[in-house]
Amino acid sequence: MKWTLAFLVGLLTGLIATLINLAIENIAGYKLLAVFQFIENERYLTGLAYFAGANLILTGFASVLCVCFAPTAAGPGIPEIKAYLNGIDTPDMFGVSTLIVKIFGSIGAVAAGLDLGKEGPLVHIGSCIASLLGQGGPDNYRVKWRWLRYFNNDRDLRDIITCGASSGVCAAFRAPVGGVLFSLEEVATWWRSALLWRTFFSTAVVVVVLRGFIELCNSGKCGLFGRGGLIMFDVSNVTVTYQAMDIIPVIIIGILGGVLGSIYNYLLHKVLRVYNLINQKGRMPKLLLSLTVSIFTSVCLYCLPFLARCQPCDPSTTEPCPTNGRSGNFKQFNCAKGYYNDLATLLLTTNDDAVRNIFSSNTPKEFQPVSLLIFFAVYCVLGLFTFGIAVPSGLFLPMILMGSAYGRLLGVIMGSYTNIDQGLYAVLGAASLMAGSMRMTVSLCVIFLELTNNLLLLPITMIVLLIAKTVGDSFNPSVYDIILHLKGLPFLDANPEPWMRNLTVGELANAKSPLVTLSGVEKVSRIVDVLKNTTHNGFPVVDEEVVPPVGQATGATELHGLILRAHLVQALKKKWFLKEKRRTEEWEVREKFTWVELAEREGKIEEVAVTMDEMEMYVDLHPLTNTTPYTVVESISLAKALVLFRQVGLRHLLIVPKYEAAGVSPVVGMLTRQDLRAYNILSAFPHLVRSDCREKQN
Amino acid sequence: MKWTLAFLVGLLTGLIATLINLAIENIAGYKLLAVFQFIENERYLTGLAYFAGANLILTGFASVLCVCFAPTAAGPGIPEIKAYLNGIDTPDMFGVSTLIVKIFGSIGAVAAGLDLGKEGPLVHIGSCIASLLGQGGPDNYRVKWRWLRYFNNDRDLRDIITCGASSGVCAAFRAPVGGVLFSLEEVATWWRSALLWRTFFSTAVVVVVLRGFIELCNSGKCGLFGRGGLIMFDVSNVTVTYQAMDIIPVIIIGILGGVLGSIYNYLLHKVLRVYNLINQKGRMPKLLLSLTVSIFTSVCLYCLPFLARCQPCDPSTTEPCPTNGRSGNFKQFNCAKGYYNDLATLLLTTNDDAVRNIFSSNTPKEFQPVSLLIFFAVYCVLGLFTFGIAVPSGLFLPMILMGSAYGRLLGVIMGSYTNIDQGLYAVLGAASLMAGSMRMTVSLCVIFLELTNNLLLLPITMIVLLIAKTVGDSFNPSVYDIILHLKGLPFLDANPEPWMRNLTVGELANAKSPLVTLSGVEKVSRIVDVLKNTTHNGFPVVDEEVVPPVGQATGATELHGLILRAHLVQALKKKWFLKEKRRTEEWEVREKFTWVELAEREGKIEEVAVTMDEMEMYVDLHPLTNTTPYTVVESISLAKALVLFRQVGLRHLLIVPKYEAAGVSPVVGMLTRQDLRAYNILSAFPHLVRSDCREKQN
Predict the structure, then answer these.
(1) Is B603 helix (H, G, I), strand (E, B) or coil?
(2) What pLDDT was estimated at residue A145?
C-alpha cells in the first residue's frame, strides 16, 4: 500500500518533470532560434523587441497564474515543505490549484529566461503530488478516494511527502541518491530507516521514468528535448590531476563561497523585505514587479553581449565554432564568420545550457576574464531581484550560475599555475556558493557528483563544501532558515538553546494564562464557552472524586487524558448529548461516530448551533479522549521538554505535578509548539536574554 | 574541540588503514610471487607446502593474538558498534588491546588468504580510535588526558564513535559519502544534522590522507602497495547501454541476491551456533578451528585451479596475457606459454585482486562458466565457515566475491542476449548479495558507485538493491540483526510491536518486582542494603511529608528525581555522611565532589567499607539526584513509552500515577531497557503472544 503510493509518487513526478522539461526546452529553444535569425540578418532591434516581448508574455502568463489562482505557488516552496515536515501546516500549500499553477508557472517563468530554476518548484510539485495521493484527492473538492483514506494520518502523510520531495530533487537534477540525501539533510525533521528505503524506491522510479523518456526522445521525436544523456552537466571527460599546491585555490574557492553565500543571504533578506511590502499592496503591484524584472532581465541578457569583443575560433577545438544553434558552446551572435562572442555564449541561452557552457572542460581559452566578470555581476543582480517575484522560482540554478562564474574566473586567473581544468573550477565555484548559502554538505556533494559524473573530483568538492559551510555559518543562518523566519513559521530547531536548561516547564506554565481543563462528563454550555473563548486545540480532561484501585485514598482526581478541539466540535455537531451526568458505553460511541469523522480536522465552533435546552445537557468526553498523552513532570528543564517534544513529534505536552497530595491538580499545565519557541519564552522571561548574552560573552 | 577530534579520528584512521593495506599487499604479494616461482618451475607440491605453510603461520599469528589478548577483536565488530550506539555497552569493545590486536590480526588474517575482508575490522578500528580519543585515553591504563575529559559523556562519545565508524568504512572502500551513509543507515540509532556534517568532515580527512599516500606510493616507494588509483574496482571504462529487455536479467539478479542472501543468513546462523559451542571449550579449540579453516582454504585455493582447462590467450586483448605477476588478469599458473588458467586468475590471488579480475570489463570470453561455478561454490563454503573463527574478519568482501561469481555467471549465460557487460553483471551480483544479506540500500548504492565509478550503472543498481532487499526481508532479518541476536545484546528496535499498543506501562510495572525508592535524606544502612540486594542502576528519590508551594494540601509526597547507583557508591566511598537528618547546602557538595568523580561510572558496592557507626548516619541524596528525569503517566501504552525511550535515548523511565490524592506514591514504577524488550514482556504476558499471532493471521 505505502509502496504503491511511493511508486505512484515517483512515476507521476517523473512524468510531470519530463513534461516540464519538454515544454521549457521547446519554448525556450524555438524562441532563441528565432532571435538568432534576427541577429543573423543584423536586425538587432527587432531581435531585442522579439526577445523581450516573448519573455514578457511568458512571465506575464506565469505571474498571472500565481497572483490570481495560487499565491502559495510563488517561490520555491522548499521552506514550507520543511516547515510542514516539522509539524507546521501552511494552508493551501499542497492543493490541486497550487500544483497546476506550479507546473505551468514554472514552464512560463523558466522559458522566459528569468534567472531562476525549475529545481525548487519540482521539489514542491513532487510534494504536492505526494500530498494529494496520500490524502486520496484534493481536500477542498471532496473527490476523496475511500481506499486511500486510511492514510490520512500525520505520520504517513509526512512520510509520503518526504518521498515526494526526494522525487522532486531527483527529477530536477537526475540525482536519485542526492534526492534522498537532500530530503534527509535539509527537509526532513524526523527520519527512520524504513523511510530512507521508501524514499530511495521513489527516486529509483523517477530515474527509470526519466531515462525511459530520454531514450525515447533521443532520436528527435520530442522536438528540441532529449538530446544528451541522463547526466546533466557531464565533466567526466577531463582527467582530474592535482598536486598538493592545488589545495590553495581550492581553499580560496571555499572561503569565497562562504563569504559570498552569506552576503547573498544577507542581501536577499533585505530585498525580500522590500518585496513583501510591494506584494502586500495587491495583485497589480505584484504583477508589475514581475514584468519589470522580466524586461530588465531581457535587456541585460540581450544587450550586454554587445560589450564583449569577438574572439577568433580556435581551429583545434573539436566543437563546432561558431554556432547559431539553440545550444552550443561558441555563439556567433554579432560576430563575423570564424569569430564568436563569449558573453553571448553565457547569456543568450537557456540557463541549463549556460551552466553546461561554463562547466565545459578542455576549453581553457574560451572565456575572457572580463566576460566572466560581467556574467558574474549580471547574475548577482538578477539573482537577488528575481527570487522574490510572484512566479515559481528555484534557488539552485541561480546559485550554480553565480558560483560557476567566480569559480571559472579564478581558474582563468590561476592560468598555468594550476593543474585543475577551468571547467572543474566552475563546478567547484558552484558547489561552494551553494554550500555557503544553503549550508548543506553531504547531499550537495552527492548531487554534484551525480550532476557532473566525476568521482575523482569528490575529495576536493568535499573540502570546498566543508570550508564554505563553516565560513558561512559564522556569519548568518542558511537561506532556507532566513525565508522560514521571514514567513514567520514557528520552526522547532533540533538543539535547545543553552539558557533553556535553566528554566523548568513549571515556571513556564506559571507564566502562561491559566490552564483550561474539562471534566470527564462536562456540561454542554461549558464546552461551548471554552471553545468560543479560547484558541487552544487541546484540553486536558480531569475526573474529580474518583476512587483509585490502589491506595486507601478517596476523593482522588484523575488525569484522564487530552481531548482535541476537533473532537469536541464533532461531539457538538453530532449532538452527542446526555440528559443525565453518566458515563457511556463503548457501543454507543461506535454507533454515533465513524472513524472517518474522527479523522476530520476541520470544523469550527461557529458552525455549530446548540439550543438553550441542550446547553443544560452533558457530554461524556471519556470515549473521545486520548488517554495516553505524553507528559513531563513540572521540575523538568525546558531543554529536555523541547527534546521530547521534537523527537517524538508532539503537538501538546501535558505537565504533571511532582507533588502527590489531595487538592493538587493532576495536571498543572500544557505546552504547545508556540510555547516552546525561544522568542516567545524570552518575551516572558526577559532576564534569560541577559544571562544568555553573558554566557555567550564568556 | 569536537572538530579537532573528528579531524584526528579521520587522520589516524586514514594512516592506520594505509599501514594495514601496505602490510597486506606486501605480505600477500611476495607470498604469491614466491608461490608462482615454484609453479613456474613445476614444483607444484613444494608450492602447495609453501602456500599452505605461509597461510597457516599468518592465520596462527592472527588467531593467537585474538585468542590470548583480545577475544573481542574477533569478527567484524560492526554489530557491537551498532549495539553501543543503541545504548548497550559491551565490555572491552573499544580498548587499546582490542585496537592493536584488530590491526595486526587483520593484517595476518587477510594476508593469509582467508575468505574475509579488512572492511569490517577497519570500521571497528575507526571506532576504537574514536573511543580512545574521545575518552582521552584507554580506560584501564589511566593515561587519561585531562583536556579531553569533558568529552566523557555518552552523547559526545556516541557521536565521535559514529565518526570513527564512518571513517572506517571510508578507509575500507575509499568511499567518503558511502561511509557517512553506512553509519547513518546501518550503524547509528540517533542522528542529528550536525552529526552528519561532522561525520562527513572525518571521511573527507580520511580520503585526503589515503589519496596523499597513494600519490606518494604510486612510484613504487612502498613495495607492492599503491599501484592503481583511489577507486578500488574501477569499471568506468565500459559504456553502459541497456534496453528495456535488459530489465529481465536485472530482476533475476535481484531475486537471486535476495534468496541467496537470506539462505546465507540462515546457514551462517547455524554455523555460528556450532562455532559458539566449539569456542566455549577454551583457547585451544578456538585456535585449532582457525588453523583447520586456514589449511582447508589454502588447499582449495591452490588445488582447484588444476581442475580448470587452460585457455588460449586472446591476441586482441590489451592486457598482458599470460602473467605470473602478483596481480593481473590472465594467470599462467600451470599452463603452457600463450595459455592462461582462468580459475587461478580468480583463486590464486589476493581477495582484492580477485574482485578486480571478476569485475573486469570488456573481457567477455575470459572466464569459463564451469570455472565461475567452481569459484562460486568454493566461496560459498569458505564464506560460511570462515566468518566465525577467532580472527578479525569482515563480511563485505566474501559477499562481494560470492555475489560477483553468480552475477558474472548469469552474464556469461545471457551471452549475446544482453547489452550489459559481464563485468557489470558481476558488480550487480555483488550488490544484490550484499543487499540480500545486509539489507542496506542507499549506502550500498553509494558505496558501489564510489567503488566502481560508473554513474550510468546507478539506476539498475538501485533496482537490484531494492528487489534483493525486499525478497530477503520476506525470509529473515539482516545478518547484523542475526549476529546481534546471537550475542544476546538487548537491541531496541525503531518500531514498537503492534501488540505493545494494548498494554499500558502501569500493567507492565505491576508485573515486575516492587519498585525500590529512596528517601531524600536516607539512612546509610538502607542505602547499603539496597545496593547490595538489588541490581538496579537507578533509584527514584521520594520526599515524604513536604508542603507544596501551591494548594492547601499538607503531608504531600514529592518525586524529587532519580539517583544513579554510581553516585550512591561515590557518596558512600567519600563518606558523605550526616549525623542528623538534614538537607545540605550547595557549597558542601561542591567541596566534597569534583565533577570528574561524578562522571565516573565504575565503582562497586563491594569495594566500600562502612563501619557500624556510620550505618546509623544519614546521606542527603538531594544534591546528587537528577531532578529532571523523563516520566510517563501509568496509563500510557507501552508502544508510546518505547518510542520515547528510544527517541530520547533513555536508560530509565519513571512512571508517575494518573491519580492525584493523599496516600498515592508519586512514582509507581520504573522502566529500563530490559523491561522494554519484546521477549521479556511476552514472558510476563503470555496471552499477548496469542493475540499477536491472531493479528498477524488476519
Answers:
(1) coil
(2) 53
CA distance B253 to B403: 9
* pLDDT for the residue A150: 53
Bridge partners of residue A542, in order along the sequence:
A519, A559
Tell me, yes or no, if A371 comes closer than 8 A to chain B by beta carbon: no
CA-nearest of B303, B300, B306, B342 to B323 is B342
The total of other beta-carbon atoms located within 10 Å of residue B574's CB is 12
Mark yes or no for CB contact B456/A495 under 8 Å. no
Of A229-238, A509-518, B380-389, B440-449, which range is least confident?
Answer: A229-238
C-alpha cell at B649: 535515548
Cell 547499603, residue? B528
Q: What is the pLDDT of residues B281-322, one digit of tens each?
A: 889 999 999 999 999 999 999 999 998 888 888 887 777 888
Angle A247-280/A283-303 helices, nearest 10 degrees? 140
Whether the Cβ atoms of residue A527 and residue A572 lie closer than 8 Å to each other: yes
The residue among A445, A471, A447 whose CA lies nearest residue A459 is A445
Cβ-Cβ contacts under 8 Å for A24 (sequence gap 6 or more) = A106, A107, A110, A111, A118, A350
Averaged confidence pLDDT in chain B = 86
**Whole-number Å distance between alpha carbons of A502 and A499:** 6
With 0-12 / 13-18 / 19 or more C-beta atoms within 10 angstroms meaning exposed / middle / buried, residue A244 is exposed
Contact by Cβ (8 Å): A170, A178 = yes
In contact, A455 and B453? CB cutoff 8 Å? yes
pLDDT at B301: 93
**CA-to-CA distance for A440 and A422, rounded, in angstroms?**
24
- State whether residue A211 sits within 8 Å of chain B by CB: yes
The 8 Å CB, 24+ separation contacts for B526-533 are B527/B568, B527/B571, B527/B572, B527/B619, B528/B572, B528/B605, B528/B608, B528/B610, B528/B615, B531/B565, B531/B568, B531/B569, B531/B572, B531/B605, B532/B605
> Given a cut of 80, is residue A131 above it in pLDDT?
yes
Instruction: Name the nearest CA neighbour of B249 among B405, B408, B410.
Output: B410
Taking residues A89-114, report their average pLDDT. Answer: 91
Helix (H, G, I), strand (E, B) or coil at A352: helix
CA atoms lying within 13 Å on the CB side of residue B86: 19
Number of continuous H segments (helices) and E segments (strands) in chain A: 27, 11
Yes or no, beta carbons of B204 and A442 under 8 Å apart: no
Partnered with residue B519 across adjacent β-strands are B542
- Residues in A touching B184 (Cβ below 8 Å): 184, 196
Region A594-600: mean pLDDT is 66
DSSP-derived secondary structure letter, B185: I
Say how far apart CA A181 and CA A166 lie, in whole Å: 8
- CB proximity A241 to B under 8 Å: no
DSSP H or E stretch at residue B618: strand B618-620
Q: Which of A150-159, A178-187, A424-433 has the highest mean pLDDT?
A: A424-433
pLDDT at A244: 75
Q: Grid coordinates standing for A351?
A: 540557463
Higher pLDDT, A307 or A649: A307
Residue A575: which pLDDT band, with cuts at 50, 70 and 90? confident
Q: B644: nearest CA in chain A?
A: A648
Number of neighbours of residue B132 by Cβ within 10 angstroms: 22
Contacts of A211 in chain B (CB under 8 A): 459
Cβ atoms of residues A545 and B661 within 8 Å = no
Whether the predicted interface score ipTM is above 0.90: no
CB proximity A548 to B under 8 Å: yes
Of A177, A230, A455, the CB nearest to B453: A455
**Residue A411's Cα: distance from chain center in Å?**
33
